[in-house]
Write a structure and sequence with these properties.
This protein is an alpha+beta fold. It has 14 helices and 9 strands. It has 2 domains: 160 residues, Dbl homology (DH) domain (Dbl Homology Domain, Chain A, Up-down Bundle); 139 residues, Roll (PH-domain like). InterPro entries: DBL_dom_sf, DH_dom, GDS_CDC24_CS, PH-like_dom_sf, PH_domain, PKHG5/7.
């Protein structure tokens, strides 16, 4: 309330007018009214729905706050107008925004304890039904939050990952100017638009090329592996321009830091489908001549099992190497199992009707 009411006061005096109250605090006022009701009203009313609205906005609020904190005027509002208030008890806004989420998860435990101490059977049945209602609401909410979090993460990845045109990636391919526009319309960027795709593992590695070592960033999805090269950009996210894209808090810390510095990930080669990927361990004795350590090899095969690309990668530590290899092997195994199940299901036709 201190942060929200202070912002309202400042905006009434024409400060921070471009800051969106809803994007930061969502339906916090409505939530406070629900929480202030009596016990029976509290659990019989719109508790779950009100909490769900707040929780579904939470990730977006943190996303928005992360961008605003880069601004000097917003920083003054946070530190000098709010955080110094003794009622905040040295808590910062991110710690306070998450509190309603933690509160919601404690309700089933609270109701269970009340149920144990109740003597009246009618009352016990009523409280038990409330507990089940709240637990179901939390399960539904968890699914929605995961989907929304994944959607926002992939939307950010679409901004961070750059897909060069085939003629820019490989000079062997010549395309007349008048055909380039039609090829651009079939953009590869849409490959990351599916909210059903999952990012399983990611991180920075080193790619050994014939004449140099190249810093790369790998994204392991549940259906393909993407190798990108790291490109630094002078233009940074954040700053005083609120139109710039904020950094999604669900991204890996390493990538968050990289994006804040203006970094981009340019796709090095086409995505490697997991059913076309072969993983090989490299014995240290075989790569000492190249001064490589913790190395492993990724082989990309086409549908005819011909090798069309090879990537010799070096991890920063032996542990990181083992993690990468384990993650890739597990992803391949899961992908293969899923597709075998789909294939078997497709061949299980229903029995023919006797009328045919």
């Amino acid at each position: 309330k201190i942060f929200m009411n202070t912002l309202k006061y400042l905006q009434s005096n024409e400060f921070l007018l471009d800051v969106d109250l809803w994007r930061l605090f969502a339906n916090l006022e409505e939530l406070n009214k629900v929480i202030s009701k009596s016990f029976l009203q509290f659990f019989q009313g719109d508790l779950c729905q009100t909490h769900q609205i707040y929780c579904l906005n939470y990730t977006s609020a943190v996303f928005y706050l992360e961008n605003l904190r880069q601004r000097e005027d917003f920083g003054i509002y946070l530190k000098q107008w709010c955080e110094q208030n003794e009622r905040c008890k040295r808590l910062h806004l991110p710690e306070l925004l998450v509190a309603p989420l933690h509160r919601l998860t404690r309700y089933p435990l609270l109701l269970n304890n009340i149920w144990k101490r109740s003597a009246d059977e009618t009352e016990k049945g009523f409280i038990w039904s409330l507990k089940e209602k709240v637990e179901k609401s939390i399960r539904d909410l968890e699914g929605k939050v995961k989907w929304l979090d994944n959607f926002q993460k992939f939307r950010q990845l679409q901004e961070v990952i750059i897909w060069p045109q085939v003629w820019d990636r490989d000079k062997r391919f010549f395309v007349p100017e008048y055909l380039k526009q039609s090829l651009r319309e079939n953009s590869s960027e849409n490959i990351l638009s599916s909210a059903n795709r999952l990012l399983l593992h990611e991180g920075r590695l080193t790619l050994a090329e014939s004449t140099r070592l190249l810093d790369v960033y790998l994204f392991l999805f549940d259906d393909f592996l993407l190798i990108t090269k790291i490109k630094r950009n002078k233009k940074k996210y954040g700053g005083s321009d609120t139109g710039l894209i904020p950094v999604c808090p669900s991204l890996a810390p390493e990538l968050q830091s990289f994006v804040r510095e203006g970094g981009l990930c340019t796709v090095l080669d086409q995505p490697i489908p997991l059913d076309r990927l072969t993983l090989r361990n490299i014995d240290p004795i075989h790569v000492t001549v190249f001064s490589l350590r913790n190395a492993f090899l990724i082989q990309h095969e086409n549908r005819y099992r011909q090798c069309i690309a090879v990537f010799l990668l070096q991890a920063p530590t032996e542990t990181a190497k083992k993690t990468w290899m384990s993650q890739i092997e597990t992803a391949i195994s899961h992908y293969t199992m899923q597709h075998e199940t789909k294939k078997n299901t497709a061949f299980c036709f229903p029995a023919e009707s006797s009328e045919i």
